[in-house]
Amino acid sequence: MNQASFNHCLLSFLDDSPTPFHAVATMKRDLLAAGYQALDEQQEWVISEGGKYFVTRNDSSIIAFTTPTLDFAHQGFRMIGAHTDSPCLKLKPNAHVERFGYHQLGVEVYGGALLHTWLDRDLSIAGRVTFKTESGELKSRLIDFKDPIALVPNLAIHLSRGVNTEGFKVNPQEEILPVLCGAEHTFELEKLLTEQILRQHNDVSVASVLSFELSLYDVQKAAITGLHGDYISAARLDNLLSCYVGMQALLNADSNRPTLLICTDHEEVGSLSSCGANGPFLEDVLRRLTPVPEQYTQTVQQSMLISADNAHALHPNYAMKHDQQHAPLINQGAVIKVNNNQRYATNSETAAVYKDIANQLDLPAQTFVVRSDMACGSTIGPITSGEIGVATLDIGLPTFAMHSIRELAGSVDAFNLYKILLEFAKREQLITK
């Protein structure tokens, strides 16, 4: 695979994955096509040497792994972690709002979204709907309207004279409600969702819609941009970019050592859920593979996790927001994230493993430390490390406009990280004690 084909498939992955549910469905599709076997948490597992497997939870988190050997206690896993969710607007349960001559949707802000970037964008709706069939069964299906059916119009500057000098604040209760159509039209949300289910799934009937988890998203396609094609411009780069890079590394790794990819939901709101990094999903899987307690501990201590999330690139218009000694540039390599207060899980040993691989491949690596007078974000790295005790490295691809409706990353960085993760998957020795 070359960089051009890698990035072409990345753009398709981003466009096919408007929600965490769709991201996991897309990953399942690619894993099945590559010969991976689906496991069911409700059933007994039979794991064979030389196997390739995946398991999902809540339809929004996924773990995939290879078993070239079953000697996990002595081989450990080379783990890659990412998250499937992104900041967005989600529909409230009683979403339909009719006011002042328009049908609108009541929304709740999910995660730390840059709200003003959602204004004046062509929006669609996607997610999971749970319903009762005509035979009385409860089922869930994914839907995606795909067409631009909603928008949040800005307020004209004539009615907001100070917006360019005094700043612009968006009230998430009153000012971010999308407009669907005029009140002269009849609008029934349940009927609309039923039509979409039947249109997209011919294997079910719908007696009544009972519940849904639906998100708004920008219909503009992901693209390679910049004068020389230097950038990837897309929604949900944080953190579907890492999900894609990790999956490609797993699919193409030629490794005699077990390799595992974990992509979990709810990172943007703290990861505390049954399918989040602060939940039991990864531990549950590892304990099923190594049911003997001593072997479980050995497996974890023989393993290493690379937690891949986006990193803040030095913004040329806001350079003073960075520590000038730790200011990553786009297309100058993935970023090792360091925080001595444990907001990142990187330590000197895990950083050294990554730098050694990058040096071996003659690829660049950068380091990020937040300014000492600013608060630091976090990732699934310290959460996973704290949950199971695995040695962890936090890295990320430098990105502009993180948590905007449309983010910007480097067209070179993702492919170079993929090459480093391929080498990480097959590396026999990490740190010699």
From TrEMBL:
Enzyme class: hydrolase
EC number: 3.4.11.-
One GO term describing the cellular component: cytoplasm
GO molecular function: aminopeptidase activity; metallopeptidase activity; zinc ion binding
Pfam family, one: Peptidase_M18
Cofactors demanded by this protein: Zn(2+)
Alphabetized UniProt keyword annotations: Aminopeptidase, Hydrolase, Metal-binding, Metalloprotease, Protease, Zinc
Statement: the UniProt record of this protein carries the keyword Metal-binding: yes
Record keyword Hydrolase present: yes
Biological processes per GO annotation: proteolysis
Family: Belongs to the peptidase M18 family.
Protein name (database record): M18 family aminopeptidase
Annotated organism of origin: Marinomonas aquimarina
Higher taxonomy: Bacteria, Pseudomonadati, Pseudomonadota, Gammaproteobacteria, Oceanospirillales
